[in-house]
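As a warm-up, study this chain.
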Amino acid sequence: MTSKTLWDGGAQWTGKSSVARLLAAQYQLTLYDYDFHDSRGHSRRAQEEPERFPHFAAFLRLDDEQRWVMSSPGQMAAWAQNIFDERFEMVQEDLRAMPGPILAEGWGLRPRHIARTTDDRHTAAFLVPSPEFFQHQLATLPRANTLH
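Now compare it with the structure written out below.
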């Protein structure tokens, strides 16, 4: 997987998906859309295989009050770290099933996970928006309008 995967990560609303679609088309790369795979399969996989993904499965069993009201910030941070670890295992499984070369993009692709997959730092880019671009995204993206 490491020899055939390029990584595009970073903050939300930085243009990762747009950049990845353009690069994948230009260089005939298979595009792995983290958001698509995560929203359509990772939760289900955690529920079906709780022994493999215990943190994610336990989190999914909580109701909203248990998750967001009764939990401390420290608990939430620990959940996030553990769940991202388990989600990245799922990403690696997804990628092994795809033809290469692959461009994997998404906000859930964390530098600490990707660093374990390759020694070549030239295979990953992490986008960070300028303050002006971030304000533009907030003003123009329909899903961002709910934050105002």
